[in-house]
Amino acid sequence: MDIKVRAFDETSGEFAYSNNVEQDYYRWGFDRDGQIACYFEVEKLGNSELDPPEIVPEEVSGPYELWSTYQDVDGVDLYAGDVVEIEGDFGTEQFPDRQTIRDVIEFKGSAFYPVCEYPDKHLKKIGNIHQNPELVEAP
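The chain above was modelled as a monomer; its predicted structure follows.
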């Protein structure tokens, strides 16, 4: 099984994915504490015209999120922080009939909720908490 991580770059508003080789401006490694870290390259200009520019790595400041190992109905990888709609016959007191519920994927303990609770249901990613906060805001 692959381990995939994404980091939300608050500066650019995009995600850096650990398995995306096309995002060659992001570098993955470890910080001084041994934690996984994502860096992007920044060109720093010298103090004078004689000083050449220097490429300096800066750590992505946004949160890091793990891949849940699940995919939605369209084959899209689901990460912690993704907002999903779950359609199905739940047969519970809270959701007695066939319906669609919306939830945010979270890593709790050793599992990703709610996807681990409803693996046989129709899951569809509709956004994430960083780029689409309106999807989880209370009405």
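The radius of gyration is 19 Å.
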